[in-house]
Amino acid sequence: MSQEEELVDAVRGRDHWRLDDHAAWYAPPGSRAHVRIQPVAQPTRRSRFAAAIVRDATAEHVLPCATATEAVRWAERVRLD
Q1: Cα 61 from chain centroid?
Q2: How far apart are CA 44 and CA 26, in angstroms?
Q3: Is it the case that residue 81 has pLDDT exceeding 90?
Q4: Distances (CA, A) of 19 to 16, 26, 29, 46
Q5: 46: buried, middle or exposed (CB in 10 Å: 19+, 13-18, 0-12)?
Q6: Are 16 and 75 in contact (CB under 8 A)?
Q7: Whole-angstrom Cα distance, residue 55 to residue 19?
Q8: Assign residue 39 a region: left if phi > 0, alpha if psi is -120 to 50, beta otherwise?
Q9: Cα separation of 78 and 35, whole Å?
Q10: Using CA atoms, how far apart are residues 6 and 80, in angstroms rounded to an integer?
Q11: Digit-coded pLDDT (tens) for 25-38
Q12: Cα(73)–Cα(52) distance, rounded to whole angstroms?
């Protein structure tokens, strides 16, 4: 399975997610920030996806993740207010 397919599978059926050609975006209603998850261009075993908190068009924190599911779960737990 490609990284893109893995990301699509990880967000399928989850609320407040949208996909574009290169990333998945998590933006729950009322939040001042959102999380962008995208595949890493040159992945390693422990860093295949990057999850970034984005506020006012600026990435504030980036977390490397081994799987898309790990990144999605982190995005849904992190505070975005």
Answers
A1: 12
A2: 24
A3: no
A4: 10, 9, 17, 23
A5: exposed
A6: no
A7: 18
A8: beta
A9: 9
A10: 24
A11: 999 999 999 999 99
A12: 13
Q: Quote the tokens at residue 19.
A: 């996909």
Residues in the chain, total: 81
Using one digit for the tens of pLDDT, what is the confidence trace for 47-77? Answer: 999 999 999 999 999 999 999 999 999 999 9
DSSP sequence for 4-64: HHHHHHHHTT-TTEEE-SS-EEE--TT-S-EEEEEE-SS--SS-SEEEEEEETTEEEEEEE
Tokens standing for residue 68: 């898309």
Which tokens in the block code for residue 40?
A: 């890493």
